[in-house]
Model the fold of this input.
Amino acid sequence: MAKLRPFDQKVFVKRFHQACQETGLNQMELAKKIGTSQGSISRFLYGSSVPRVSILFKMALALGVSSDWLLGLKNARR
Done:
């Protein structure tokens, strides 16, 4: 059984920011693409909130990465 890592919000924020920069999507574009508000995306980027699982899944798909990578659970991006 694989060892589980604890959730580290700093890792999530860093990886989310990195993935957004690499795709070139701004907050508004990503929000529209995944069906949430720009304010929610801003809160995720600044670490004041974490996304629900359904939003996390859509974020990962839109950004071309795995949700496990975004959460810092795995080092493989996909």
Q: What stands out?
A: The first helix runs from residue 9 to 23.
